[in-house]
Write a structure and sequence with these properties.
about 190 residues; alpha+beta; Aminopeptidase; 8-stranded mixed sheet; two-stranded antiparallel ribbon; 4 helices; 12 strands; about 20% helix; about 35% strand
Amino acid sequence: MDDRIAEPGWQVQVREVQAGTAAFEEVRILAARVLAQDRYLVSRVPQAQESHVLGAFDGTRCAGFLRYLIQVIGAEAGRPAVIHNGEPLREGYVEAFGVDPQRRRRGIGTALQQQAAQHCQAAGCYQMRSRSPVTSTENYALKIAAGYVLHPSHENDSYYFLLRLLPVERKSPAAEPGIPDHVENRPHLPPTV
């Protein structure tokens, strides 16, 4: 998936990056500067079924990053799976997220969050979830504007943010001629600035 953000003088492209590549190293360098989050880009998370790292790039320079996991809801807390329609409910969990402090308030964070939510929705996830320290006021503003609900964490000085993802609707082509057999509903996120 490729998402571009245009602003006078530069263009940012959001794309998935793989460990061991030059692009991943650029993401790691920025993550180390932003709240020392580089360790979260490579940490092993046993309950994760998938792990993805997105980078927002202006050419080869990284302007933002987001690592998200796809996991069964509650697995990291040792809870039994909630089964719905014969399948365990899954979520996209944001493990690391940041934007270059000099590039904030330009839609980069929103674009990263949107791309992660769209992939998680397409993967059948029920929700997106993240946790942020009370000092991350810009992240709070982004999440609240996107429609996330929040709940205080009992673990530390932070809040959990939750966004319900709409299910992917499946329609039979025989039932409605001319309409594709599936229609994707987009997550409740505002358009990229």
